[in-house]
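Translate structure to sequence.
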């Protein structure tokens, strides 16, 4: 169907949305310490903060962020986002969670098991991937970087994750959990293991859980994930442009764009509209028309597309690629 753009006057919320989009594209220089996520199983470099009360993650440690016109600056009674000498918004940097100071009985620090992204607990439950280090490696991914740098452990157990989730809820106000995984060389692609981890978190802490995985060979696995009490799922296509997908994620390209739509259809039936999401990365040379068309098709079937600018991860095959301009995003 035809789509018509809707324009509105730039009210306060519109100006804030524009500012956050600018920060996600240009990055943010920081003059105060703040927690951030680096590496991981997807686009990373996430400096975390609230901007006028709105949760946001923006690049802070990438080289291009050091040239950003925007800066986070301490004030007499708080913090602000500035461009030049102009204060654009108030801000609250994310502080180190208290549960990070705890460890398991066998000496594993809680922060190596799961991180807190503002108020959402997050973990890559298997920090290895069948595609890493071979011709199938996703070029934007840094899953092996985090492990090599000693910032995590290779495999988290359901028991570990449940223990950390309770602490994150009680000490730092975590409200939900998001679990992802490197793809395993099994027919379910790792979906059932990450779902069992999510089930353990939900049963121990009561937190709603999203799990993320590739489309399994047998789509009935998606129903099994739902039966474990998982609240929502992320099945990430990365790009709606087949040529780009084949270049940046060869294994995902073998599933094909239509393969993702079939998986989403099964997932929406199992979890409900709005409880299935996909990431769509901008700035990898994709056709904008294919991107918009694919997003609308996903939306119409009940899938939420998170459209995000590429954040080049140090150690990934795309580490030297520039982030896309905010105007394009």
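Result:
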């Amino acid at each position: 169907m035809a789509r018509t753009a809707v324009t509105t006057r730039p009210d306060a919320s519109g100006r804030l949305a524009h500012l956050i989009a600018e920060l996600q594209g240009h990055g943010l220089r920081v003059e105060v310490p703040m927690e951030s996520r680096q590496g991981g199983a997807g686009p990373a470099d996430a400096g975390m903060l609230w901007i006028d009360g709105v949760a946001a993650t923006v690049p802070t440690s990438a080289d291009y962020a050091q040239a950003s016109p925007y800066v986070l600056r301490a004030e007499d009674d708080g913090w602000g986002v500035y461009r030049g000498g102009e204060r654009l918004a108030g801000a609250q940097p994310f502080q180190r969670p208290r549960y990070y100071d705890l460890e398991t009985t066998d000496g594993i620090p809680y922060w190596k098991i799961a991180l807190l992204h503002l108020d959402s607990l997050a973990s890559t439950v298997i920090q290895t991937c069948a595609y890493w280090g071979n011709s199938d490696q996703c070029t934007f991914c840094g899953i092996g970087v985090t492990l090599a740098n000693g910032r995590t452990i290779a495999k988290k157990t359901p028991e570990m994750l449940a223990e950390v989730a309770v602490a994150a809820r009680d000490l730092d106000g975590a409200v939900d959990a998001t679990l992802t995984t490197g793809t395993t060389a099994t027919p379910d692609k790792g979906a059932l293991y990450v779902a069992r981890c999510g089930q353990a978190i939900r049963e121990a802490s009561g937190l709603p859980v999203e799990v993320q995985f590739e489309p399994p060979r047998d789509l009935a696995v998606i129903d099994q994930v739902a039966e474990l009490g998982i609240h929502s799922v992320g099945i990430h296509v990365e790009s709606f442009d087949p040529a780009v997908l084949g270049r940046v994620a060869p294994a995902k390209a073998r599933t094909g764009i239509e393969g993702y739509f079939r998986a989403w259809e099964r997932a929406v039936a199992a979890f409900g509209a709005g409880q299935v999401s996909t990431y769509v990365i901008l700035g990898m040379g994709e056709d904008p028309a294919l991107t918009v068309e694919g997003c609308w098709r996903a939306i119409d079937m009940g899938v939420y597309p998170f459209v995000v600018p590429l954040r080049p991860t140090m150690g990934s095959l795309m580490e030297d690629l520039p982030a896309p301009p905010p105007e394009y995003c």
